[in-house]
Amino acid sequence: MIILIIVIIAVIGLAWIASYNSLVKHRNWAEESWAQIDVQLKRRYDLIPNLVETVKGYAKHEQETLTGVIEKRNVIAQPNASRHERVEQNAELNGMLRQLFALGESYPDLKANKNFLQLQEELAGTENKIAYARQAYNSTVMRYNTKLESFPSNLIANIHSFMRMELLDIPDEEKEPVKVQF
């Protein structure tokens, strides 16, 4: 009888440890996914000054757009900004970058500039990587949150104060249909 009780306690203990370790693993995967987004945001952060400097030579009277891009870039880089704030600021920066690229249409010499084209291509590639990293983050967070809510790991999560993570969503202005005019 005592052996049976010891075996039951051992099985429960092992299940507890396995469930706890699984929660830790999923939380760490979600954190690593966020770090991948940060890597791509840093890459974009580093590309923006080069792009702005290239455009400055061609578009002296477009200072407002250039200044706005740099200001948003600097706000995003603040270490005390929350994830949510950084995502919102990045959405605003995306709009400003679209304006910056639209300047290329207004200045044929700029549009033909190799540096501008290369920077534009690198930034577009980085934007694609950011989108992919956001998808990976949301997928990882969804698996983590599912684990938090599933029995019996939800009991262990509550006892050990595992917290739900928020998914990254698309800003409302990016959900609106694109207006194409000819």
What does this structure look like?
- Helix content is 80%, strand content 0%.
- It is an all-alpha fold.
- The chain has seven helices and no strands.
- The chain has a single domain (23-170), classed as de novo design (two linked rop proteins).
- It has helices at 2-56, 63-76, 83-106, 108-112, 114-149, 153-159, 172-175.
- It starts with a helix and ends in a 7-residue tail after the last helix.
- It is rod-shaped, with a radius of gyration of 23 Å.
Describe what is shown at a glance.
The protein has a single domain (23-170), classed as Up-down Bundle (de novo design (two linked rop proteins)), CATH 1.20.1440.20.
Task: Looking at this protein, list some descriptive labels.
MamQ_LemA, transmembrane helix, transmembrane, 182 residues, LemA-like_dom_sf, membrane
Helix fraction by DSSP (H/I, runs of at least 4): over 70%
The helix/strand class is mainly alpha
> Could you say what the CATH topology is called?
de novo design (two linked rop proteins)
How many H/I helical runs? Answer: 7
Biggest β-sheet strands, sense, barrel: none
Unreliable runs, pLDDT <50, ≥5 residues?
178-182
CATH class: Mainly Alpha
How many β-strands, per DSSP?
0
Under the CATH scheme, the architecture is: Up-down Bundle
**Average pLDDT over all residues:** 81
Distance between the termini: 84 Å
Shape call = rod-shaped
The helix/strand order is: HHHHHHH
Approximately what portion of the residues adopt beta-strand conformation?
A: under 5%
CA radius of gyration: 23 Å
CATH homologous superfamily descriptor: LemA-like domain
Please tell me the total number of domains: 1
Family: Belongs to the LemA family.
InterPro entries: LemA-like_dom_sf, MamQ_LemA
Pfam families: LemA
Keywords: Membrane, Transmembrane, Transmembrane helix
